[in-house]
Amino acid sequence: MIDFDDGQASRAGAAHDPAVHGTTRKSMSKRTLRVAAVQMACELGAVGKNLERATSFVEDAARQGAELVLLPELMPGGYTLTQRIWDTAEPFDGTTTRWLAALCSRLGIYAGTTFLEAEADDFFDTFVLAEPSGKICGRVRKSPAVSFEAYFFRGGNTPHWFDTPLGRIGVGICFENALYERYCEIQSADVDLYLRPFSGASFEAKFPVRRRDADMLNAALRDGTAETARLMGIPVVMANKVGRLVTELPAGFPAQDVEFPGFSAVADSNGQLLGQLGTGQEGVVVATVALDPARKCKARVPPMHGRWNAAMPWWAFIWVLTQRLGERSYAQSAQRRVRALGVSSRAR
């Protein structure tokens, strides 16, 4: 049984409760926090194997003094843009949350990742954070599901921040970090720490784009951690995958064969990059950051790039178009409903 903060039942969504997301809170004093990002390859459908590998990386981070560890997006089941991703889905009180709660309780740390959650007849990309007691103290659902992801799971309607004994934590899941609206939400919430789990693929492999566009997107993965920390005045932790991504695409779009480049990193609240893992390298990056209210930037960066947080290639509209097509297909899919209900019913 997963124990929730404030005694809320898991399916009531304690991390979404207005009382948890109140606008008033005690002011935080300046302090330091030892944090870590895990960078690893994840095999599609191999939940047990992926969790076993993740355990060794989290244990390594804990040995180096990490108090909070971030793992990549959809780490437990792996990533694909086909219906095979539904095979990796779990109810909320399933394998991943139980693993995370037990691991954090054993090591006395906080740790978080995302997994494909089935609730009723829907799928969600859900981030969970467990605390040292074994409680799940935060849950955030990715919104929107980007591009082809929208064929396979829907966007959630949860806030992208929650309160913990460490302070107020903001969460941006992969593509969300490219959205200006997400930047505004996180900054308006006055968070103390920003976690960014990614399944961000490189565009250098066989993706048919211009070199300038590929460099622009890869630079966002590489440099976005420190740049976001500088703009917001808060520490940022980013965890991405490495390894190859070979996937078919829905609706007759061409299959893709690309790489997860990594670039997992930790940046301090002054924008200093404290550590970053290289391309194709598995491991952990551990650093001590300052949670300093005096460093927080109160002035919001104006929307210089429309809906985007940074400059994007001209063809970025394709992400929006395929998202809309995917949302329509998902809403009409009877198979999706049956598959999700089959998984979520296990929780009952």
Describe the structure in your own words.
With 348 residues, the protein is of the alpha/beta class. Strands 5-4-3-2-1-14 form a six-stranded mixed sheet. A six-stranded mixed sheet has the order 6-7-8-9-12-13, with helices on one face.
Distance between the termini: 12 Å
Q: What's the Cα radius of gyration?
A: 19 Å
Low-confidence regions = 1-23
Overall outline: globular
Strand order of the largest sheet: 5-4-3-2-1-14
- Give the biggest sheet: 6 strands, mixed
- The tally of strands reads 14
Structural class: alpha/beta
Short summary:
The protein is an alpha/beta fold and 348 residues long. It contains 6 helices and 14 strands.
What does the secondary structure layout of this molecule look like, with pairings?
Layout: E1 31-39, H1 47-63, E2 68-70, H2 95-107, E3 110-119, E4 122-130, E5 136-141, E6 161-164, E7 167-171, H3 180-188, E8 193-197, H4 211-232, E9 236-239, E10 242-247, E11 256-261, E12 265-267, E13 273-276, E14 283-291, H5 317-332, H6 334-344
Helix pairs in contact: 1-2
